[in-house]
Amino acid sequence: MFDRKTVVEFEKPEALDLDEFELEMIDYGMDSYEVDENTVYAYGSYTDFGTLAKGFEEKGINISKANLQRIPTTPIEFTDEQMVDIEKLIDKLEDDDDVQAVYTNLA
Questions:
Q1: Which of 6, 7, 26, 36 could cysteine-pair with 44, CB 3.0–4.6 Å?
Q2: Which tens digit of pLDDT belongs to each residue from 22-44?
């Protein structure tokens, strides 16, 4: 249901060639990347967290955020009516002091 991944978020430098960046970072354990406007999200196996962070350091790229996340492998879509109930449940779970994190596979 979920893949545990290293997720590194950084602002894309203007001079960065993403194709060349991808080829260089594969050696450090990067599996893929996504670009959202000027922010780049690099993904790798959770076991490559340290290696991937070291690669960014060696390349001189400033990391905005790096953490381990659970990425859904089978996203599920719900109706708007169902989403209201689901969001209420998620809010209650997140408000509980004993809950550290909530992961969903909502599409």
A1: 6
A2: 999 999 999 999 999 999 999 99
pTM of the model: 0.80
| Residue 6 binned pLDDT confidence (cut-offs 50, 70, 90) | very high
Residue 80 and residue 58 share a domain: no
Distance between CA atoms of residues 22 and 2, nearest Å: 24
CA distances from 12 to 35, 63, 73 (A): 9, 10, 27
Cα 53 to chain centroid, rounded: 14
Residue 93, domain extent: 75-107
